[in-house]
Write a structure and sequence with these properties.
This protein has 457 residues and is an alpha/beta fold. The chain has 15 helices and 13 strands. The chain has helices at 37-49, 70-74, 84-91, 111-124, 152-170, 228-237, 248-261, 286-297, 302-312, 338-351, 355-365, 375-387, 403-418, 431-435, 443-456; strands at residues 9-14, 54-57, 99-105, 129-134, 178-181, 186-188, 198-199, 204-205, 220-223, 240-243, 273-282, 369-373, 393-396. The radius of gyration is 23 Å and the shape is globular.
Length: 457
């Protein structure tokens, strides 16, 4: 049993110009970041210099609905950006250690094509790929040939089948299936190639995949849902959870609940890493940090403010309200992102927010935790959660990019290291090794072994 001290894991959660809704307007932001490969190269290399475990970009099949709010469309920088697997394949060639997490939807993707792309990324990056499994809360069905956005429960039922099928496809070839013996002329052992022959409620796929078994066995499986079905899916299939928690108590409850579900799936607590998002606003003093926070909040245009509110108050007429009126209760009749709805609803009710306070609270990090302070105070906040059953890792959400990531690496990471909480060097060559996760065995090999044991009894 290892006696080494438990180490914090760090991810850089990248939104092109920064996580704040108005980041692109800040003097230090890269305004064209979403489609600027040099910008992303700098971010990946900065995160690797800080010995981060991974970089992550959120993604959705959705575009911006110009008909609903053309004025807000004029003022947002979050509509156009790279497709993540393409981006990560490029950046894997200018880095050596950092992992790459790409979001892909189980509602709007095909299992075979997704399995193929992620297996390819794992080879191209030499074992640094991860899949953030999402069911897609937003209704983007108009961009796809399906008859409407599926209900929440149906999306998760499909996701359960989807993830199992993708893992089966990744197991199509055993690790030693490729012989490649030039002298004998034998390239492949057909007995070590497997069909999934899957026929389920949502999918019918024969296989095999036309990519060898990924370097890591499976790319690391990440999940982000915190609803009841989301927690159960994560407990059964995920190896890391990206979560949003506003309070220490909520984070502890989530951590305890999800970890407590693992045993019934034959899993240990350390096989699932829980990673809350944190939006750090740094300053040399508390006053400087607060001034930095106030400045970026001042950049939110009124049309963006009202657009934020309209997205949360779907079906409610806000025309009679001013921004200084108390925020009314949020509607709860959504089939979209249930866990995020609960988080922001609790935020409004717990703090008795006005509409202005509400939009400012979510303009930063969309419900993730915001911490404003000195580098020591940011480190203190992270250490408290890490050491008290609320987090194994953190998804760092820089307000402005590239400068806020550089500041975190240069100012906060050294404090975490000095306290013995974070690595000085990478532990391995793959993302799994750096996260302390085991390489999974091939499911077909495990099944064959079990059948042999049963036959011998």
């Amino acid at each position: 049993m290892s006696t080494s001290k438990r180490q914090m894991r760090l991810g850089a959660f990248i939104m092109a110009t920064g996580h704040h809704i108005a980041a692109w307007r800040h003097p230090e932001a890269q305004a064209d970041a979403g489609l600027n490969i040099d910008h992303y190269r700098e971010l990946a290399q900065t995160a690797e210099r800080g010995k981060f475990d991974l970089v992550f970009v959120a993604d959705s099949p959705a575009g911006w609905d110009r008909a609903k709010d053309p004025e807000a469309l004029r003022r947002t920088a979050q509509g156009a950006h790279f497709e993540p697997l393409t981006l990560w394949a490029a950046l894997s060639q200018v880095t050596k250690h950092i992992g790459f997490v790409a979001t892909a939807s189980t509602t709007y993707e095909d299992p075979y094509l997704l399995a193929r792309r992620f297996a390819s990324l794992d080879y191209i990056s030499k074992g640094r790929a991860a899949w953030n499994v999402v069911t897609t809360g937003a209704d983007v069905s108009k961009n796809f040939s399906i008859s409407g956005h599926p209900a929440h429960a149906d999306r998760y039922e499909r996701a359960e089948e989807f993830v199992d099928l993708v893992k089966g496809l990744w197991d199509s070839y055993e690790d030693d299936a490729f012989i490649r013996d030039k002298e004998s002329g034998v390239y492949l052992d057909p007995d070590k190639v497997h069909l999934v022959d899957h026929k389920g409620k949502f999918f019918s796929v024969a296989g095999p995949l036309n990519v060898g078994r990924p370097v890591q066995g499976y790319p690391v499986i990440v999940q982000a849902g915190a609803s009841e079905p989301g927690r159960e899916l994560a407990a059964r299939t995920a190896e890391m959870i990206f979560t949003a928690n506003q309070t220490f108590e909520d984070a502890q409850e989530f951590y305890s609940d999800v970890k407590g579900r693992l045993a019934r799936y034959g899993r240990r607590s350390d096989e699932l890493l829980i990673s809350p998002g944190i939006f750090p606003v740094l300053g040399g003093t508390e006053a400087e940090a607060q001034a930095n926070y106030d400045h970026i909040q001042s950049l939110v245009h009124p049309s963006i403010a009202w657009n934020i509110l309209a997205r949360h108050y779907k079906g409610i007429d806000l025309s009679g309200y001013s921004l200084d009126d108390p925020a009314p209760p949020l509607p709860d009749n959504t089939e979209l992102n249930k866990s995020r709805l609960k988080l922001v609803s609790d935020l409004v009710s717990r703090n008795n927010l006005t509409l202005r306070q509400f939009y400012l609270a979510v303009a930063t990090a969309r419900g993730h935790r915001t911490v404003v302070g000195t580098p020591e105070q940011i480190a203190d906040a992270m250490q408290t959660w890490f050491e008290n059953g609320a987090a194994d890792a953190f998804n760092i959400m820089p307000p402005i990019l590239p400068t806020a990531l550089t500041d975190f690496v240069d100012q906060v990471v050294p404090i975490l290291r000095k306290r013995g909480l974070f690595r000085h060097e990478y532990e391995g060559t793959t993302l799994r090794e750096n996260l302390g996760l085991q390489r999974p065995p091939n499911g077909f090999v495990v099944q064959a072994g079990q059948q042999q044991v049963q036959a011998a009894v």
